[in-house]
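Please predict the structure of the following assembly.
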Amino acid sequence: MRTKLMQIGQRLLQALPSVFGIIVISFVLTRALPGDPAVYFAGMMADDNSIAEVRKSLGLDRSWIEQFFIYVGNLLHGNLGMSLSTGRPVLEELLTRLPASLELTFAGLGLAILVAVPLGVLAATRPGSLTDHACRLLVTAGVSLPTFFTGLFLMYLFYYLLGWAPSPLGRLDILYLSPPHVTGFFTIDSLLDGDFETFWAALRQLVLPAFTLGLFALAPIARMTRAAMLNALGSDYVRTARANGLSQTTVLGVYAFRNAALPVLTTLGMVFSFLLGANVLVEKVFSWPGIGSFAIQALVASDYAAVQGFVLAMALLFVVVNLAIDVLLTTIDPRVALEG
Amino acid sequence: MTAMARSFRHFSYVMGENPVTAAAFALFALIVALAAFGPWIAPYDPLATDAMNALQPPSWAHPFGTDQLGRDVMSRVIVATRLDLGIAVSAVALSFFIGSAMGCAAGFWGGWTDRITGRITDTIMAFPLFVLAMGVVAALGNSVENIIYATAVINLPFYARVARVETAIRRNAGFVQAARLCGNSDLRILATQVFPNILPPMMVQVSLNMGWAILNAAGLSFIGLGVRPPDAEWGIMVAEGATYVVSGEWWLALFPGSALMLAVFCFNLLGDGLRDLVDPLRRT
């Protein structure tokens, strides 16, 4: 147990250089603006006085090294600057919109795992079968489909032609009130509130965008599951288990799948990174009020503080997710402790 | 049998074995032809508006229909090939050259060079890549060139990593030692001995990567970065068509979207095929 804790601690320390790298890049990005950053951060209506004030408050009149420390200090206080388009602090804007994006991302990832893992396992247990070919086709198609295009196509099919989906505008139809804020996830909040009608409405809004994201995440997960399962099934321990006369379900479920799950879990980190990018596109297609839509609005309005805050937040979120996955791996895989 | 004839026979054998790759090669030739001769092939002027014929569904006169300004969607899809392919090719070329220089140096000399390039690629990979591209475009300014730079930056780590691994394997190979014994400098050995040998795996990476680069560039222009209307580009055409999909005018978004999908699909298949050609051991 003690070694596990130490390993987790070590892994946390290993994340520090990448966090430092992320902060350096985002500092460079905020300072690499064409022209005078102070003019941009001060906004359209600024006069010379307010520009000078912004320059002083951002520390732009100091040296680069000093500026960097001021920037890090601001970050530690949670100060990402003001959003020009909304006039509120960027951090506040991001935090209010984050639950919407996370709900969508997790729903998409969950859907993808639910479909891709069984599909990969089936394909690996019956190589050359119809399932295997279907899996391969899906994997190649999945990486070739532009998310924004699949989203639009699904929208046309299920909203315009079939009329099954509600109008693709946001998280909840205007007829409903948003549920009391607990987690920020509308589906969970409405369930906690016991309001099944709102839950159903929120779920109906969520299905199409989540499905679009899921389709995108499906390919890498299915490919990895198939490869890892094939690897595990060809191993000596599975042959031994078979030779000892264990049932097919025990061999597959306990011996092969548990071992194959580890590389799949590692892949999830990479998939999550791609999902955070795809999220932006899906949010735009379905007018989902998450941080992706916020970033796009900010980009169009040249609201740089908001965009760079968004980039930084996404990168830090990605680091946290990778850390969580690694910690999970350390705790469930006994071999990691042995190696250390 | 000469080496040329042998590799041609290998090529035709792989093509015969794998009709999918042959089809991908044919599609690739078509895409290149459209990119090269698009403006001459397109039946209409891609920018000519015709308010009388706005939002017409596909017909014989306009096989892909017309858009909200009456422009012919088919001509726009054809003409857009050059811009889409141009952005992706320039971005991939940039990251190919910078990435292989970084990777070769890291793999050949190791030590500090390796540590610094490794740190740079790791830091880029620590970002969700599409989000980083958005940030780069926001910082540099909203233009087509900056879309290219942003796409190049997020592709860089893949090339640097492949080049580093492939160079490290060959660092002490016999032919490298022989070249060193002949008195060649490190740089000369890298350029004339090592680099030509790591080209095949790098080319596979290029074609696997090209589809992804096209997707990213189209994604950036879909959210309104880079290409400006009225220029024809697949991503922005899908974005313009998106508002009409909910009211049933599907052809505005479907055709450019399908063109994009086909191009990416083609490059992905081509990458798999090239890998079979270059590295028969890894055939699946």
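Chain B is about 75% helix and 0% strand. The mean pLDDT of chain B is 84.
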